[in-house]
From TrEMBL:
PANTHER family: DNA-BINDING TRANSCRIPTIONAL ACTIVATOR DEVR_DOSR (PTHR44688:SF16). The lineage of its organism: Bacteria, Pseudomonadati, Bacteroidota, Cytophagia, Cytophagales. CDD domains: LuxR_C_like. Pfam families: GerE. This is HTH luxR-type domain-containing protein. It comes from Roseivirga spongicola. Residues 3-68 form the HTH luxR-type domain.
Length: 70
């Protein structure tokens, strides 16, 4: 799977969450910013990680920055 295919798999909300994670926001801060529950943020995070080969959030954010997605 190439970078474009992975990029197209993310929803707009997932990109929003990735961007907030890249800014250093915690799950609670993201939830407050997006007016959703922390559980919703956690679910999105798990879905995002499941769509990539990134082992954790830090690696995911680094990969997204490197590929110019955020």
């Amino acid at each position: 799977m190439n970078a474009v295919q992975i990029n197209e798999q993310f929803t707009d909300r997932e990109f929003e969450i990735i961007s907030l994670m890249a800014e250093g926001a915690s799950a609670k801060e993201i939830a407050n910013h997006l007016f959703v529950s922390i559980n919703t943020v956690t679910t999105h995070r798990k879905n995002i990680l499941g769509k990539t080969t990134a082992p954790n959030t830090t690696a995911l954010v680094a990969k997204c920055i490197r590929l110019g997605w955020i």
